[in-house]
Amino acid sequence: MTEQPLSQRVTAPASVAEPRHPDVATWRSPTADDVDAIHALIVAADTVDHPTWATPRDEIEDLFDAAHIDPARDLRVGFDGDGRAIALGVVMIHPSRDVHVNTYLMGRVHPDVRGLGIGRDVLRWEHESALSRLASMDASVPAGIFVYIDEVDTAGRRLAERRGFALERWFSSMVRDLALEAPSIDVPDGIDVVAFERRWSESTRLARNDAFRDHWGSLETPADRWTKMIEGPHHRDDLSFVAVDGDRVVALALGSVNEDDWEMQGYSSVYIELIGVVRDHRGMRLAPAVITALLRAARDAGLDKAVLDVDTESPTGANSLYGRLGFEATERAMALVARV
């Protein structure tokens, strides 16, 4: 059945009031000059919410560079009387909107001022802003507003549920000691597992989009967003591997390194950004083949551990595969969704 246009089925407030709270001196839309202040806020929150990894500064810069984000419309920052950023509201609609419209709310509150009700009004502003934007769209596709919350953030979960968000999914971080020997995996004749090179970039993007088409909450990665990731400061060609069938990439495991994580973790690590196999090549052991190639390269590079995140209900049984390869679950995060 065809969905009604979002403009007809989404109820939004007539106007969205700006965030307000007596303990916040100033709220405003940020500019690129505020990147360091926002990053300091998020790093402070990271140490409490997920103390084993840090948000890179370039992810904050991306809020001001991405074509699908308008900082004046989609971002709000709250400052205390000393000019310190203590609250952040972010509303981001995924740029791929032809089959589903996914909107993400990514607010943060500094640990020093939690428990005062600031987060409640940040979420209120984000949620109402998201509804307002969706109500202005004529797309006749399913839509959802997503909030990702770390398992330890029970207060954040309560706030989201009070606004009508429902828990739909759990995601688990998993860690593997690279001192463990990585098994050798045989692949079918005609398929080669090779280190990623930029000449494979577009074919790898297409493979990623095909592989994730049946994954919960996943939408296609557009070419510009893909290029930004591959050419970003953390991606590592030498810690990324693809399985190639002729001139087509059919499986991928892409690694990145953020050395800011290492002090928090207490060890050096590679983060496995993406693992996927195109649907017509599943069942050939290509996922473990590209993963183990990455693990061996990371060990040879002198790194201590490999880290990844996985949907605990992945349709491919990925979490079971990673367990068999020696990964162990650590932290968890929740995905809460308001369907519209």
Automatic annotation (TrEMBL):
- This one is known as GNAT family N-acetyltransferase
**Which residue spans traverse the membrane?**
none
Q: Which InterPro entries is this protein grouped with?
A: Acyl_CoA_acyltransferase, Bact_Acetyltransf, GNAT_dom
Keyword annotations for this protein?
Answer: Acyltransferase, Transferase
Domain called N-acetyltransferase: residue spans: 25-183, 191-340
Residue stretches in coiled coil: none
Q: Does the keyword Acyltransferase apply?
A: yes
Q: Which organism is it from?
A: Microbacterium awajiense
The keyword Acyltransferase belongs to this UniProt entry's keyword annotation: yes
Question: Biased-composition ranges for Polar residues?
Answer: 1-10
